[in-house]
Amino acid sequence: MKGLSRDRLWSIAVLLPSVVLLAVFVYGFIARTVYVSMTDWGNDPAQALAVNPIIRWVGFANYQELFTGFLQGRFRQELVSTIFFTLFFILGCLALGLGLALVLDRNPRGEGLWRTIFLFPMSLSFIVTGTIWRWMLQPQGGVNQFPQALGLPAGNFSWLSSTEGIWKFDWNALPLITASVVGLVLILLAVRAARAGDRTRAIVSGVCAALLLGWALLVGPNVRLLPAPELHGFNLALIGIIIAAVWQMSGYTMALYLAGLRGIPEELREAAKVDGASDFGMYRHVIFPLLAPITLSAMIILGHISLKIFDLVYAMAGPDNTYTSVPALNMYLTSFRQNQFALGAAIGTILLILVAFVIVPYLSSSFRSEEGHA
Amino acid sequence: MKRSSVKKALLIAAALTVTGTASAAGKLEIFSWWSGDEGPALEALVKLYKQKYPSVTVDNATVSGGAGTNAKAVLKTRMLGGTPPDSFQVHAGQELIGTWVVANRMEDLSSLFKSEGWNKVFPQDVITLLSAKGGIWSVPVNVHRSNVMWYNPAKLKAWGVTAPKTWAEFLTTCNTLKAKGVAAPLVVGENWTQQHLWESVMIGTLGPQGWQNLWSGKTKFTDPKVVQGFTTFGKVMDCANKDASGLSWQQASDRIADGTSAFNIMGDWAAGYFTTTKKLQPNAGFGWAASPGTNGTFVMLADSFGLPKGAKDRAESLNWLRLLGSKQGQDAFNPLKGSIAARTDSDLSKYNTYSRSAAADWKRNKIVGSMVHGAVAPESFTSAFGAIIDQFVASKNAQGAAAAAQQLATRAGIGQ
């Protein structure tokens, strides 16, 4: 604690350049983007690319436009698509990766070869994966022709060009749905807290839940974000893209799970066997709980990849297909084709917030555990 | 990691030397997206330029990528960074005017048009399309036609139908063909080809004058006639294939060649595709007509070059523009590109069968500009309009689509 020792000076000198670079090129530019998103830069075509554009502060008007503007239905569909995409992508990768890892954990013959084969797709770029899968998912060729090899009629699912959607809901009902879901979660928390004997926590959650649900019942149904109902759902054209993405990333989850499985001490398995656990019971009560941290970190990595996805969709379905579009694509088109820089920055900021939802809890928890160890 | 940063450093160094030497005299940098099939046509022009001005080094800065999507992004970076190319390619009309002219970054070329006598050799309708704010902003080097309906003559004969003359007739023909087991009488492709079709339906419904009023702001998109056009477009789309968004325009054209579908509305680059790539004979392997309701109307789009303010080699660039507008330049370029000359005095013996028929129409017809190819609407409109078309095709809500289009037009500054 003597202030600046030689070591300390050295460490500061070594770290300083990267801290400065990070401050400017990451946080500085994030701040700049957030600032731009609250201006009207580009809303007037005459000012968008002028030498000295007149840029006015408009507050949250661009965000309001994105969520309630008549013309921004495409963006809202993309938000919904992203949620569905993330959900199915993560579930698919986890399930397939775990399955492959469990099979490989049984030490099949040629395990090293299989591992390489399953891990190989990850070494490709999304553009390559996208191009290959676009060929395979041509409506009149590729996958749809497989049944013919077995003498069955060819499939006719239009993989990337379907315009149909399922599980549709009205965007106007979004506040209602959100309030109900959060309310139900709060009730669950309250019940758990009450069982654990934490009274203050139970009461706080219970009251919040009651307020939210009360709002949902009384005010929610009358909220109108848009003048007319606007249906959004899970577009079937996304299925092809989800398959390609799972194909690419499930090798990664397999590697994670395999490392986890190999890390479980043999004694634990033997102890379980001695206690009379069946194979299924051993997995259910011994192995899967030990894999939980791996599942969490896989979810974090996959989650932020899927929220930011751009290249795969661009390669597979092109930038102008609104049924497969994602916010990152829209951000690119809005900023660099329509020259609406402020609106594009707003979409970028929303993406950043979405990714932060996934990353920040993870960072803070790992931070906390590190401090705990120290 | 290391290797890529070395690469980056090299790229930056290379970029610096390029901009550094560009300031030396006797240089001309041409920025375009003509690579691949269109490369030889550009080469012919450059060769001609070198013959006339041997002391000038021509730097062909091509950024490949269909319809210039990549090139436009690079151009934006260069213009905003203060190092504009000496002359760059752009779709003639609002694509240039709505983006760069309104931002006050282009030079007015009116005096060049006057001194070269181009006001007489280019059709008046074209000069009007190139003009805004009291100036003329680019030199068109070629012309393509957007409102062409392609068909397979042998197949039409076998089905016992003829190419329809109006959209009402088209819908009847469509029903006849459906009854004969043709699942999709019309073939469309990805989003922009649907906008392309919309354009032809709209002009066929509104007529050329009505179409021009739409873009000058005299007619609103919410006008009953425009809504009617949307409704017709919806019915026409009911005749089309369901896997549209996965098809490129070439794949859509293939379905005409192999007879899966009867009709396709596409620009006349399809003629080049049919003859050069598919080796089909005009009028035998493929046939064409003006799209329904647009006989006597030539919906044009053109590639053109403009002169950005602050271009380093302004004199060389002006010479380049002079060459582009000249008869010699246009007749060197267009037969290779598969387009026709924007001048009305071109040497038709150099062109193929289709181009000759198009050139004849070019001289006689009423000329209007294409929306999807940037002649009458700025990019900010066209790019966002795609989402409206997608929504309309799903919902078939003509009123809603028209209202959305009107909002978009107001935002893009159309009719102001």
Automatic annotation (TrEMBL), chain B:
Chief place where the protein resides: other
A Pfam family the protein falls into: SBP_bac_1
Locations listed in the record: Cell envelope
Signal peptide: 1-24
InterPro entries reported for this sequence: Bact_solute-bd_prot1 (IPR050490), SBP (IPR006059)
Listed transmembrane segments: none
Keywords of the record: Signal, Transport
Keyword Signal appears in the UniProt entry: yes
PANTHER family named in the record: ARABINOSE-BINDING PROTEIN-RELATED, BINDING PROTEIN COMPONENT OF ABC SUGAR TRANSPORTER-RELATED
Function: Part of a binding-protein-dependent transport system for a sugar.
Family: Belongs to the bacterial solute-binding protein 1 family.
Protein name in UniProt: Probable sugar-binding periplasmic protein
UniProt organism field: Deinococcus aetherius
